[in-house]
Amino acid sequence: MSESANVIQFFTGFRLNDLPFLAQAAGNTLLISVIAISIGTVFGCLFGWALYASKYARYILGSILDVFRSVPLIIQLLLFFNFFPILGFPLDPFAAGCVVLIVYMSSLVAQVARGGIEAVPESMRRASRSLGMSYFQDMRYVVWPIGVRAMLPAWTGVALGVLKDSALVSVLGYLELLRASQILITRTQEPFIILAIVGAFYFALSYPIGKITAKLEKRWQYD
Amino acid sequence: MIELQNVDKSFGELNVLKSINLNVEKGEVLSVIGASGSGKSTMLYCINALEKIQGGNILVDGINVHAAGTDVNKLRQKIGMVFQQWNSFPHLSVLDNVALAPKIVLGKSKNEAREIAEKHLRHVGLGDKIDTYPTRMSGGQQQRLAIARALAMEPSYMLFDEVTSALDPELVGEVLDTLRLLREDGMTMIVVTHEINFARDVSDRIAFFHQGIIEELAPAKELVNSPKSTRTQQFLSKVL
Prior knowledge:
The complex is a heterodimer of chains A (223) and B (240). Helices cover 78% and strands 0% of the residues of chain A. Chain A has eight helices and no strands. In chain A, α1 (19-53) runs antiparallel to α7 and α5 crosses α6 (135-165). Chain A is elongated, with a radius of gyration of 23 Å. Chain B is 39% helix and 26% strand. Chain B contains nine helices and ten strands. Chain B has helices at residues 40-47, 72-78, 94-104, 110-123, 139-151, 169-185, 196-202, 220-225, 230-239, and strands at 2-11, 14-24, 29-34, 55-60, 63-64, 79-82, 157-161, 188-192, 205-210, 213-219. In chain B, the strands form two sheets. Chain B has a six-stranded mixed beta sheet, with helices on both faces. A four-stranded antiparallel beta sheet of chain B has the order 2-1-4-5, with helices on one face. In chain B, α3 crosses α4, α3 packs parallel to α5 and α5 packs parallel to α6. The longest helix of chain B has 17 residues, at 169-185. Chain A binds chain B through residues 121, 123-124, 126-134, 137, 141-142, 145-146, 149, 220, 222-223, and chain B through 45, 48, 50, 73-74, 76-77, 79-81, 83, 85, 87, 89-91, 100-101, 104-106, 133-136, 146, 149-150, 153.
C-alpha cells in the first residue's frame, strides 16, 4: 500500500470543468458545420440548377460530383489535407476540413436541388413564361419557391448527415467534439460517460435543424 | 391581328403543322376543333413562342414572333394563355397568383397590382376567394383563376388550350360561362376546344384541323350545321 503513493497518477477522472472544454469543441463542430452546410447549400443549389439546365453540365459536372459523393469522406479529408504540403502550401486542419466538407455537402445538395427543380411541372413553367416572365423571373418567383419546398425534407437529411460527418475532421487534428472526447477519454479512461455527454452535444446541435425544418415544412404546406 | 403565313412546325420527323395560313382579326373569336394530335394546341404554343417553328411567319400586330430580335417576354404580355392544366402557383394566395406578373413583369406597385388582381378576380366570380390558396379550390375555380391571371396582364389576345378538358363534367359550365363573358367584353380569342356546341354558339369562325392542315375554315354555324369537307362531317358525326 505504501508503494501507491509513489506511483505517478497518469489518469484523472472526469471533472465538471471538462465541460467547458467539450462545449468549446462543440462550438468548433457547430462552426465548421454551419460553414459547410450554408456555403455547401449555396453551391449545391447552383450545381443542381446547372445539372437541370444543361446536358453538358449533367455529364461533366455530374461525373465530378459523383466522385465526391462516392469516395468516403475520411479518404477525401486525408488526401486533400496531405496533398497541399506536398506542393509546399501546408493547410491548417480547419481550412482543409471546411473545403472538403463544403465540396461534399454541395455534391449531395446538387442532386437534391436538381430533384427540387424537376418537381416543378413543365406546364407550370410554360404558364409563367406565357405571362411574360423572363427565364430568371420564372426561376426566382415560381420554380425556386416550389422547388425549395419539395427539396426541404431531403436537404434536412443531408444537412444532419454533414453535421455528424464533421466528426471526421478530427483525423486532421481539428479540435471538434469527437477529437475532444478522445482526448478526455485518454485522460480519464471513462469512455462511457464522455461519449454519452458528446452524444448529447451532437443531439443538441442536430435537434434544432430537424425542428426548424419540420416547422418550415408545416408552414409551407399548400393551403 | 394574328397572322399565320405558311407556318411549318415539326417535332423531329413528325410534321405537326403543314403550311398553315390563318388570320384572326381584332375582336374575333376563332374556335379550333379537330382530333387529338391534329396540331391545334401546337399552333397556340407557336403563336406565343412557347414552341419554335421551322418555316413561315407568325405576326402579332405586325411583330414577327419568331424573328431573331423579337423580345418574346414583351410580346407575351400581349397574348394571354390558359392551359388544359390550370397550373395555379400553389405557394401563392389566389390574389398573389394574379398580382405576381403585373408586379414583376409590368412593374406595378403592390397596391396597383392588388387592385388589378381584385378587379379581374371579381370579373371571373372569384372575388370572395382572394385570400385562400388555390389548392383549396375546385378545378373549375382554379381554371377561372388561371383566366384572371392571364387577363391581369391586360392582353390584346387570349389563347385557350382545351381549358375544359381536364375538368369534371359538372365544372365545365362555369369555365365556359367565363369565356362567354370575355366574348361579350370584345376580347380577341383563339379557343382550342372539344366543346363543339360551345364553339358553334360563341365563336365567329371555326377551323377544323386534320393532320396538321386546316381542313375547313368557315363561319361557326355554317361549319357545324353544314360542313363541306367529308372529313369534317366524319369528325362532327363522331363528337356530336
